[in-house]
Batch of 3 targets.
Target 1
Amino acid sequence: MASWDSIESIAAAVQSGSTTALEQVERALRAIEEGKEYQAIISTISDRAIEQAKMIDARIVAGEKVGSLAGVPFIAKDNFLTFGSETTAASNMLRGFKAPYQSTAINRLEAAGAICVAKANLDAFAHGSSTENSDYMTTKNPVNPAHVPGGSSGGSAAAVVLGMAPFALGTDTGGSIRLPASFCGTVGLKPSYGIVSRSGVVAMASSTDCIGPLANSVADAQLVLSVMAGRDELDSTTIESDIKTTVSEVNPSQLKVGVVKEFMTKDVDSEVRKAVQAKVDALKSNGVQVVEVSLPSLTLALACYYVLVPAEISSNLSRYDGQRFEHIAADAKDLEDSYVSARSEGFGREAKRRIMIGTYVLSSGYYDAYYKRAQLVRTKIIKEFEAAFEKVDALVGPVAPAPAFKLGDNVSDPMQMYLGDVMTVGASLAGIPAISIPAGKNESGLPIGLQIMAGRVQDNELLALAKYTEGVPS
Ligand code: GLN
């Protein structure tokens, strides 16, 4: 598990010629091979990565300047459309699918000199919190392989902790970057909705899908975000943003932070509360003003999320009809049968469950009672966050009610699995930026994450506080 230098140092070393892009790519590919038993990776992109590395090295030899991520290898969750490998979303539905174009996020990283070396495992279509919903394999937690790595970006988080690359990309619709970051002990950033283009990423719930990095430090996450951020004409929900390449300094005595009351109740694992409290105390003793903030509607966030997100999923997954994408029913009698067979063979249990719930809450007769009401609750949550950020610069709390659970513990109980998302879905529904940073370990050595949330499009400010908290002496 040899760790990587900061992304900035790797790129500087490649640019200066003290190492080569090829050496960095080969190192990443070796680490992927060595960490195979953790099942974090679905496929490698070795040929294309080596070709790109050689091109970058040749440009450097020719005296060119090659970009802020020159020769930095990275891994993308397998729901990012990429050249040089299949894009499966870890589902049987897309087994064998070769993307005809690449995601904007990856194009921008490549333009800055970064090199995608592999595709990471996930819960199929990003539905889940443990990677156990993957149709391919279950990723093991790198800290303790008897436990889950979290999900749905579990492969990406495990890959970073296993030293397979200095950073990985994940998607976060309701916590899928923050939860695995917390379970594996790495940094995971969900930016504000609209900061990074969703173009070329397999859609889950379009109104909350966000793209972000998992990395070894807040500074690395900031740099990667700055490269991916900005308007994209291929995604009309993207916004202009001014994401800095480096993290700003903060003055602790000018900061006011709110601890989310609803996230620190007795239902939350005591060691998780202790770890979060220790970080909060450290901030306090360094001059940060700390207050308790109550957001009562957050207790409704999970129910609201599990109405709205399946609704959007049922719509987004309707494109997989056995005609246009990979899984095509072999012996269909007629068109109707080919739809039904392809969907019943290609989708796993969780996708089917969500399609059924989503279709139900959108159906006439139930729309007002479920979908419309959940939208009203969503607005209430947004308003409550806005009111909170009038009073404090940031909100803090745990990422999840407990550290990583054991493999197999929640697979047969979807309700129990959903409950683990209770602390992450609020920020997703509100479209605000949120990050998980390591906050120590419990007695059995399992990592615990601290979640920090900030107001909409306050991503630079969030990252500045996160970096300060990351290094705050306790
Ligand atoms: N665990 C949540 C869910 O299953 C979040 C998933 C995600 O963010 N992609 O819906």
Note: Residues 223 and 416 are 36 Å apart (CA to CA).
Target 2
Amino acid sequence: MKSISIKNLKEHFDEEVVVSGFVDNIRNLQWVQFVIIRDNESKVQVTIEKSEEKNKEMVELIENLPLESTVKITGKLVESPKVKLNGMEIIPETIEVTSKSLEELPFNFKDLDNVNIDTRLDYRFIDLRNEKNTLIFQIQSELTKYMREYLYNNEFTEIHTPKLIGAASESGSEVFEVKYFDRKAYLAQSPQFYKQMAMSAGLNRIFEVAPVFRAENSNTSRHATEFTGFDVEFSYIDSYEDVMNLEAELITYAFEKISDKYKDKIKEVFGMDLVVPKLPFPKMKLADIYKELEERYGYKVEESEKTDLTTEAEKLCYKLSKDMFDHEFLLVTDYPADKRAFYHMRDENGVLLGYDLLWRGVEITSGAQRENRYDELVKNAEEKGLKDDVKFYLEFFKYGCPPHGGFGIGLDRLTMLLLGIPSVKETEFLFRGPNRLNP
Ligand code: ATP
């Protein structure tokens, strides 16, 4: 017989069932033993009467069994309203120990409030046994599923681009260098060039969910040296408005689905209200944001800093967007192009035809229409002092390449904001930062 997920047990009252999981707790009383079994989503009580002769071996086994060992239980499932845990219990026939926990746990994963984050990450496999932590990844998985689903429904193709690349390129973000036989290679800081190659190849609408590497020594709550990028690119757009609109629809679609399934759970476990955003998302020009921030909240910065949003301004944008538009998201447009990557299209005044999307005061995306005209692109690359490293990329635009645009969402950041988690350290399965490469 196959094991059943504990959450599905209620369909099997009065049947013989098999359940596998960790030994979560044991209460060894005078006449009875209560053993709580836990799988990734739920728990069930196993009740062993000590007085019954046939239980003798089982009773002894449980007496010597360390918590967090794993077991496979075969027995009869009975409805028992007196049992607090889901009103049911298993009366076991056999208990097989499938692995024994050999040492005392390094910390109590059921109460993480006072456990240092580094200790938690050192023992991430134990940290993740915490119910709340398990839930983070279940929700992240479904969020990705629905984001993918939206794109599949809209005729996108999922592609897989290389992460080992031959030239350190792009926008100036630092890249990791790796030894590649007798030469150097680099880890991709984004799939940007290859997403655009797909446009040149006529693939039309593509996306990728994959690792992104950044050799940036930033120790903030929202930066990792490796994270998961959710990257989208599509052709025959009329302007970057099309890119913003598609992203807003994608997020709204996924949030609606997550809300249907997890709204109450997110409130109960994380204390966060999941608000399904209204379409269209509000948008503001960078310069207008600074004007409003000053007028409304007295926030001032030097003119020279106004070429991008400061971290503080980003935070204030949450309040601004709520006050002005009753919305949690804000699309920020009209960045000066010279601060941005050379492949973004700009208008005749040097204004970027692109945007950043902020949610709850943090940037979650950059997006833009891309420069698809070869001569313009070469000029922009040369202005940034890029030449040989982007030669292969410029080739993509020599033989016809449709107008296109796209965006990249940081999945770990999105999950962090969705669940109100303090740092991406907890929304990456295994965090990678300047001081962390293990386990
Ligand atoms: P930031 O200014 O916050 O460092 P960025 O401008 O370098 O971000 P992009 O290169 O536009 O970011 O990357 C697209 C998205 O990927 C960002 O909006 C963000 O959600 C996510 N992202 C970028 N860098 C990181 C990082 N180091 N760790 C986690 N997520 C990141």
Note: The two ends are 36 Å apart (CA to CA).
Target 3
Amino acid sequence: MSEPHAVPVITVDGPGGSGKGTVCLLLAEKLGWHVLDSGSLYRLIALQALQQNIKNDSQIVELARDMDVEYLPAGDHLQIMLQGRDVTEAVRAEAVGNKASEIAASAPVRQALLRRQREFARPPGLLADGRDMGTVVFPQAPLKIFLTASAEERAKRRYKQLKDKGMDANLPALVAELEARDRRDSERSAAPLKAADDAVLVDTTDMGIDEVVDRVMHMASLRLGGSVV
Ligand code: DC
């Protein structure tokens, strides 16, 4: 049998606001690896469904299969291009996140995104950020991390991000939205948000981002040895 993941993959799953995105970008920079922000794929489908008022399930699956997406390195983040248009900011909107969570409950949509996600595994390695990276998309990954943090702490982080961008934010509303989205992501039958049996749980509630990155780097050097030095 051929080796399913000859390219080393580190999966980082967990609820929104647990720090997955930042941790993956910082680790990718340290290791010189690629990043898959799988949530952005669900957000890209949601953005198009909202903009074009698409409600039909088979049309949504078509979007998942055929959309023309490109990720360009842009300093401390990735620029997201959809059909040649920069949608980096547009996909972050709360309304798009909520729609993405709804769309992500669809098994055919998840199936349509599988190959696209697996194609991100290219040498020298991949940091895969999402909800089902360790359970479904890269089940053979040699290191699986599950990041958590309390809903209050995650909402505070989101609140700060919004305020830093000069946007309006309401902390109790953010806590309620995060909890609702967690519930929807965890209770759906298709690839629910849960830690893989062999994942390492890291609670980031009282940890700074550098501490989280150091912890994962340490685990990566133990598990992956030569591929990360
Ligand atoms: O991580 P995020 O907030 O950008 O993700 C947006 C939504 O997409 C989230 O509510 C759950 C869904 N998602 C998913 O179901 N599976 C993934 N691998 C990534 C995201």
Note: Residues 7-223 form a domain with the Rossmann fold fold (CATH 3.40.50.300).
